[in-house]
Amino acid sequence: MNPFEEKNVRLYRWFTILYNARAYYPVLAVLFVDLGLRLEDYSRLNALWALTILLLEIPSGALADTIGRKKLVVFSAILMVIEMGLLIFAPIHGGWVLILMCVTNRILSGVSEAAASGADQALAYDTLDAKGKASLWEEKVLPVVMRARSAGFVVAMLLGGVLYDSDAVNSLFGFIGIETAFTSAQTMRLPLWMVFIQGVLCLIIALQMQEVGEKKTLEKGALRHAVKLTLETIKWSFTTKKVTIVILGTMLIDAFIRNYATVTSEYYREIELPAWSWGFMGASAGLLGMVTPTFAKWLDKRFSPAMALTVIASIAFVGLLGVGFTIPIYGFLPSIICMTTFGLFGFISDNNLHKLADSSRRATILSVKNMALNLGYGFASLVFAQGVLIANHPEALAEQEQSGFAKVLSIQPWTLLVGILLYFLWSRAGRKPKGLVE
Q1: 341: helix, coil or strand?
Q2: Torsions phi, psi for 435 (to 5 deg)
Q3: Cβ 191 vs Cβ 159: under 8 Å
């Protein structure tokens, strides 16, 4: 059977592509800097974004399990449209107005992420589960969706990098015989307009989704049930070692890789890559992401979740180690290694958590995982911002040959290595030796 014949599964595929493959990703850091913020301010905004998700992730997941997944998916799409509108009209060097609009953008983006995460995926999974076809999720849906998302990521990265560069845009129009004179201040917002359109499409798709099972409403006691389910799921997640192993292993890798992912454009500036090429860097990672499900499935079948995540963390260490050298031009190679790990640990964590959780709290357990991820990412962002601030101090800069940003990048892989060793030892504690394979 083709699982994508099911309407919800088919719509989920398109929703997750359009929601996640955002054209501003290859220029995200420099976009905020070019609007008038410092890199440290940008990192703090990301910490605020993560904190927002942290506070709302689990309640939103429990609410999705209580009143229905569709309502949360529609709500997230509405917020996506609003958050992009704020950045589109944010004034360059606009003082407190710019800061207010950026802060509001990050908060709305966090609320949107919290509402969407778990709910969209659980809606698709439950559609198959209700018909006794849950086995198709791992075998057919997850690999296809991951590849489709990677393909969408490739397109978004290519377009985002080119649209941001005024020289590239003017050259493209000149190629077709149209003379233009777009400025950087104008083209820097083109990727934002593209994502705004994606948000509108996400809203249209979400409205067409269908709730699985009985129609749920926000009745008396529903919120109380959501809170109870949240607390029960948190307790279950961190008292069931199999679940804790998946969540903490994923959290460790994500904290370092996602923090790096949000500053890639600044890194590309550091290694002297031209702006038009930044999208191609993201697209290269996206192309590799189309084959990572095959490797991820092999890891999942060959090793325990703890060992699989340890292997992926080791790959992330190699990538971050190369990034830390900030090698001009050729530094893009380790960057691609870092970015491809997203698909690997994403597959391992989601697939194993689906197996470990029952339908009554499937969206909630995914939200617990995302809460943990954003806790780690938020902490990593704050530490990174403080590290750059300290490294950029005039006295510190006088004692080093590289920029403060590059100095902090060079420290990251060794911090991750310590985390990998501690995680591996903890995950194996209390177990009888069985070799690497289980």
Answers
A1: helix
A2: 85, -170
A3: yes
Sign of CA dihedral 193, 194, 195, 197: positive
Q: What are the structural domains, with CATH classification, of the chain?
A: 3-428 (1.20.1250.20)
Q: What is the pLDDT of residue 399?
A: 54
Angle at 400 between CA 404 and CA 390, to 5 degrees: 35
pLDDT digits (tens, 9 = 90+) for 91-146: 998 889 999 999 999 999 999 988 887 788 888 888 888 888 878 887 788 888 88
Residue 336 backbone zone (phi > 0: left; psi -120 to 50: alpha; other: beta): alpha
Phi-psi region of 113 (alpha: psi -120 to 50; beta: other; left: phi over 0): alpha
Q: What is the largest CA-CA distance in the chain?
A: 71
C-beta of residue 55 within 8 angstroms of C-beta of residue 389 = no
- Per-residue pLDDT at 216 exceeds 80: no
What's the pLDDT at 396? 54
245 token code pair:
């192993």
Question: In whole angstroms, what is the distance from residue 125 CA to residue 141 CA?
Answer: 9
- Token readout for 80 is 């996506």
pLDDT band at 435 (very low <50, low <70, confident <90, very high): very low
DSSP 88-124: HTPPTT-HHHHHHHHHHHHHHHHHHHHHHTTHHHHHH
Chain centroid offset of residue 20 CA = 8
Of 45, 12, 15, residue with least CA distance to 28: 45
- Residue 138: the pLDDT is 75
